Queue: 2 jobs
Job 1
Amino acid sequence: MEHIRCLIIGSGPAGYTAAIYAGRANINPVLYEGIQPGGQLTTTTEVENFPGYPEGVTGPELMEDLRKQAERFGADIRSAIAIETDLSARPYKVKFDNGDEIETETLIIATGATAKYLGLDDEKKYAGMGVSACATCDGFFYRKKTVAVVGGGDTACEEATYLSGLANKVYLIVRKPFLRASKIMQERVLNNPKIEVLFEHNTVGLFGENGVEGAHVVKRMGEADEERYDIAIDGFFLAIGHKPNSDIFKPWVKTDEVGYIITEGATPRTGVPGVFAAGDVADPHYRQAITAAGSGCKAAIEAERYLAENSL
Ligand code: NDP
């Protein structure tokens, strides 16, 4: 088993920023990239709100820059997925799917969050064949076609608006009689002639021969005036929120009912000494690249102080 001083799990803005700070603080961070190297931003196109890029930057470019910056300060970046943890006593133990076993004095959890699905069998059946949870990654394939986006939050409205620039028609399937998204996003959707909002609709299945050709939808499901019908679509996009990637830490750290790691006040402390959480795995509210980066910075500063205070 390899013994180290600072282990960072996750390679989004939180993980890489933690690695930059930990590297500069000389605590020899080892960072494991996880399931999606570069994190969720690698699935977006233009990022216009990350400070320091007045002309904007693509998600993959931004992540590549952060990675290079972390490497410049000596971060040891590796590819593997953490599968098991033992945080019962220091040094903390983490096992990875490539067989690596690490013993660490401090741990920064920056494992992010993953898009949610409705749970329909058809979502699995048509995975990669018309079902997607990322409009900016896959929207290009649906130029001049008809697509549906599920959800009524900011993500759903943003994705529907984005897709309307490519597709001929976009259905927005919303289970409530209203949108939860911010006013400005709602207005963009409601004033867009290419977007038809299906309020009070649920999707119960998909159909198609060699890919998605349509969805079975139900209007006012369970009510006396319930209506079942099909819509013809070529693509089905999920935008119904995210699940924090905290499962392997749950026996040791506190989480809320959704699974977001609860930290102490405005700090990244988890309650387990020397274990910190940064980025979307601990943030149900802001979920921005810049807030994730900020919390990664805090976590690295905390790790460095913890090692110094305990002479580790
Ligand atoms: P939200 O949790 O805000 O919205 C999820 C949406 O999906 C809701 O409309 C919800 O419906 C719906 N939903 C959830 N489960 C199901 C289901 N099983 N079937 C059908 N519909 C379902 O998630 P978002 O990802 O949209 O946003 C998360 C956070 O990120 C928010 O704080 C948001 O403001 C922020 N954000 C900000 C952006 C920006 O400012 N540019 C862009 C994107 C996100 P219901 O309302 O009925 O619960």
Job 2
Amino acid sequence: MTARNLLLLPGDGIGPEAMAEVRKIIAYMNAELGAGFTTDEGLVGGSAYDAHGVAISEGDMEKALAADAVLFGAVGGPKWDAVPYEVRPEAGLLRLRKDLKLFANLRPAICYPALANASSLKPELVEGLDILIVRELTGGVYFGEPKEIIDLGNGQKRGIDTQVYDTYEIERIAGVAFELARTRGNRVCSMEKRNVMKSGVLWNQVVTETHKRAYSDVQLEHMLADAGGMQLVRAPKQFDVIVTDNLFGDMLSDVAAMLTGSLGMLPSASLGAPDAKGQRKALYEPVHGSAPDIAGKGIANPIAMIASFAMCLRYSFNMVAEADNLEKAIAEVLDSGIRTGDIMSEGSRQVGTTEMGDAILTVFKRLSA
Ligand code: NAD
């Protein structure tokens, strides 16, 4: 059996607490399901700064490049607020994204029926919600040049950011969205601002051409990104896969995230281009940060981290049945009324990080038997 190499980067704050719950699942899968995971571990963020004076060491970067997938906890915290900009905790994550060339960010927004009441929208609008936002992650206005503030010499300054997209960047992110749609509801909605942006005109054209050339079996719709934002909070269940650029994706995925209740529930994946063997570099991480306000208290919700591992099983190792079972285990535990503090509601039983992880593992074991 081929080895499956995982690099675990727990990071700071609640990162290590949440990662501990994934470690238990990996140990069970190796012992009982013959999963064959080999795990290595490294430091990232503040913990790497404390040990090496950088946000991630060269040795750990090499491990990340060699791994089949990286599981990332969270980075940051007040302890490192004053460290130099280039070695701030987030620089570790940015370096990983850059060196692994992770251009596709996948943010599912799933509303578990048991949590429909925790949404800011009416429960009937979000119950059973299952959408996937595919955001372009390495191009667009966050990286385009020129990017500067210039002094105009008349007491005024000018801030400049540049939105740039080349054909290949749009083609490859559209391809990821269409391929993922085929494994779900077979529908893609592409969002841009072609009415006011040239890059939006090109985005629209290239997505349309990519669709016609290779994915005409998938249903494609185009929407202006501002209208898309409105539709996301008006009738979110109309969407299956949304594909959009870096800037709009940043905002729309946060809007979609909040439809589902809590930050502690939200996983994400970032994928690179396939290599000669069809294997993509990949990093899986919860959407939440290091939550310094609750770190070390044993009360963090590990579900976002566990659901990120489920995405890893699905997208890096094609272990679809195992990913389904892990996601079902999360849903069943929530249905049974077990909650961490962040998603607590009346009549439920409040537990800590370890107990939540154990409850999910128990159901996962039953479903896997
Ligand atoms: P945060 O996501 O860490 O926390 C926001 C709020 O949500 C806090 O009240 C926190 O207790 C709660 N929360 C988050 N995750 C939770 C979980 N799993 N269970 C229960 N409650 C949870 O965001 P923040 O407070 O803005 O940032 C804290 C630190 O994390 C900062 O240093 C920030 O830079 C960093 N950060 C890192 C990442 C990352 O590693 N990818 C992302 C966002 C923020």
